[in-house]
Amino acid sequence: MSVSARLIVHADDFGIAPAVNDGIVEAHERGIVTSTSIMATGPAFDRAAELARSRPSLDVGVHLVLTEQAPLCGGSVPSLVGTDGRFLPHATALARRSLAGGVVLDEVRRELDAQIRRVRAAGLAVTHLDGHQHVQALPGVARVVADLAAEHGIGAVRYPAERLRGYMLRQPRSRRLAELAALRLAAAASPLRRLRGCDEFVGFYFGGRLGEANLATLVAGLPAGRTTELMCHPGKPGMAADGWDYAWAEELAALTSPRIRELLSARGVQLISYRDL
Questions:
Q1: Is the pLDDT of residue 243 over 90?
Q2: CATH says 5-276 is which class?
């Protein structure tokens, strides 16, 4: 069968929790996940790195973090943290502070460089960069990320610019639509464009809700002749207690579903990873 499209199935948040680590590994070994990105600031980073080292078929990038967690650089990045010493809770808060002139890009560089160095020091070959809550696409931050990628010899990056599609209007999630539009605007003239990336990006709209039906919708809409990254968040039960509103286990079930495998095969979709770009 000829190849009609190429697809990277990418699991975010490797290292955020044991339940997510285990879900990503299972979705790779038993399902269609080909790539992941690891959080150097994640509470379960060490175990995630160990799992990745023992699974060379799992492509690994760095999931750059500037929200929610604690910085690796501690008190030396005051413009990036709140009074509790942790990053701001959401990328929108970081964007507002940045627009008001309150973010020092030298501090962004120091912190993100430390995160990349920690991942590489753990013995992992980094193929790409992306960001927690897509912070890599924020104005200013994007230029820092592009420069760091060049310095570290990392050739690829995620462009989180998902197109508006008909199913989004049939299943409206107003906040997601607004954030989708903002991400497309930020990515349109981004310095990240000098790096390699996929032709298309999907999965943001269904973020945290990528059950089998929604995943089948995305597979059916993959554009022919293009390379697409599909973002997902598989995990084992146990994340709800951490305040997340994601259907981690439902996504894991979808990503390991024989039906999804059959749909990909019927469409002639080739599964690849960032190392294949």
A1: no
A2: alpha beta
